[in-house]
Amino acid sequence: MKKRTKKKTERRQRHASQHRPVKKTMALTRRLLIDLSSRRRLFNAGKFSTTHKKKPVLHEAVSLAGFLRCSRALVSWMVAERKMQPSPAAPPAAEHRRRALLRYVVFLAVSLLAFSCWALVSSRIDGAVLAATAGGEHDDHDGIIVRSSTQAEMPASGGNATSRGAVEVGVGTPAAMITRQPSSGETTTTAASAATCDAESALLRVYLYDLPPEFHFGMLGWDGKAAGAAWPDVAGDPRAVPRYPGGLNLQHSVEYWLTLDILSSTTSGDHRRRRPCTAVRVTNASLADVFLVPFFASLSYNRQSKSPHGGHGSGGRSDRQLQGELVRYLARREEWRRWGGADHLVVPHHPNSMMDARRRLSAAMFVLSDFGRYPPDVANLRKDVIAPYKHVVPSLGDGDSPGFEQRPVLAYFQGAIHRKNGGRVRQRLYQLIKDEKDVHFTYGSVRQNGIRRATKGMASSKFCLNIAGDTPSSNRLFDAIVSHCVPVIISDDIELPFEDVLDYSDFCVFVRASDAVKRGFLLHLLRGISQEEWTAMWRRLKEVAHHFEYQYPSQPGDAVQMIWGAVARKMHLVKLQLHKRGRYQRTLSES
């Protein structure tokens, strides 16, 4: 009797273990159906208002609910059929484990299916509820839905240039507030608003150090003592402004144009109304975003580096002495000591300028022609700005630019051929292509009408070769751009101005130096460019050429404004680093 009872108990336990997954599945299905039924009653009772466009969602939920009911009925039938079958003999242990594992897997699969169905239906119904709720917030007048629009607001930061120049946009744009930066060909202000250009509306606020004239316009013959002023009068006739020397001196005259522009930013007159409101001078150092050091470093190198007593207007001091005095002057300034000069702007555009002071001033932002003669810890693309050379050939107007058929020369180069370092590629190229009939590759300089011959040669050539010399860059690239001669850049280490806003591949051809010196490679590449491709680059050249023009008064989108825009973009990262560095100043002062 006891054995029979024990067998019945074991059979009952085995039967219960076999049907436990099915029971759990049925319980889960029952809870899902209850949840769906409650949601459906809410919709039928009108708790959530919705339009006819939301009905397919509810129908989908009902169809899924029906699917779950069918699944429950199928499971119930399977259980009933299982109960009607006689119990077989107990399977072997291995078979029993296999069946248990199979039941476990089936249980997991059915559970995941049920949960997925519930999650899908729940999310669809929640979406319908939210849509119906949002639709109720609009006012409906005479059957016309009046949709509201919102505008996000961004608090302006008093000391950050990024908040100025922000433009609000309506709903439907990626962001409700975007920061405007001067882009390619874009006018930063209109003539009507230029009259109100001030520290609040400008993109960049610049503090200008009042250095003695021997550091800047005194080199150009301007006598500050006789004028009784710290700076030349730029408010009157622009023709009365001290002139920069011509020839190759002009190609590195960047500091001259930047200083003139910032001086004119606070003056009155017609030229100010035409001037874009990108950078403006402030006399309160606490309001400045950047501090401009007005040292004409390139002119000082060209005129005073070879004389122990300096040149005209230097006060009897050489270039090296001026650099030493500049370093001592800045070291005494509280503005420099505050952040170690990280928010200062220095313009040694000539590759050989400020050789003695560059490392001691390396914390500042430099405006350079390239990094060819700078170690990476002194100058790099992270903190410094690359500015274009001032071209020395005259610019071609749109109507004066010859087209494809009017340019018989395929490739043009005129300049020094024997160079050192990376410039040795010039000599190898000269040997390869000098005898080609449609190639002009000769030695040339500014002497013997060199500029006039270069002007004529570039305007009659389809492609102008810009080959690395002693440094990665030269003004030859920018002479080609304003001549609308498609530049062919053969300089692996070159850095290009404003490349974050200009895609040079739209109007230039880039060739690696290792490929250019392969026999036949360069000319095969250039001859393979069709007239349509060349014309597209030629048209793009005419569109971007004004970005490389230095002029006073400055005009929208010219080189001066592009440089200020590049400085403003660099200052975002500088400000971030400076603000992070100053987090614990109060704590350190207390300790």
Care to describe what's here?
This protein has 591 residues and is of the alpha/beta class. Among the domains are: 169 residues, no CATH class; 146 residues, Glycogen Phosphorylase B (Rossmann fold, 3-Layer(aba) Sandwich). Helices cover 42% and strands 9% of the residues. It contains 18 helices and 15 strands. Helix 1 packs antiparallel against helix 2, helix 1 runs parallel beside helix 3 and helix 2 runs antiparallel to helix 3.
SSE arrangement:
Elements: H1 2-44, H2 55-84, H3 93-135, E1 139-141, E2 144-146, E3 166-168, E4 177-179, H4 191-194, E5 204-208, H5 224-227, H6 254-264, H7 270-274, E6 279-281, E7 290-292, H8 297-304, H9 319-332, H10 334-339, E8 344-346, E9 365-368, E10 385-386, E11 409-414, H11 424-433, E12 439-442, H12 450-459, E13 461-467, H13 476-482, E14 486-490, E15 509-510, H14 513-516, H15 521-527, H16 531-544, H17 559-581, H18 585-590
Parallel strand pairs: 5-6, 5-7, 7-8, 8-9, 9-10, 11-12, 11-13, 13-14, 14-15
Antiparallel strand pairs: 1-2, 3-4
Considering the chains and any ligands shown, give keywords for the structure.
6-stranded parallel sheet; Exostosin GT47 domain-containing protein; glycosyltransferase activity; glycosyltransferase; transferase; Exostosin_GT47; Rossmann fold; alpha/beta
Helical fraction: 40-55%
Our count of helices gives 18
Q: For the terminal residues, how far apart are their CA atoms?
A: 90 Å
Query: Low-confidence stretches at least 5 residues in length (pLDDT < 50)?
Result: 47-62, 125-194
Number of strands: 15
Outline: extended
Portion of residues in beta strands equals 5-15%
> Radius of gyration, Cα only, in angstroms?
38 Å
This entry's quaternary arrangement is single chain
Average residue pLDDT: 77
Order the strands across the largest sheet as they lie in space: 6-5-7-8-9-10
Q: What structural class results from the helix and strand content?
A: alpha/beta
Strand count, sense and barrel status of the largest sheet are:
6 strands, parallel
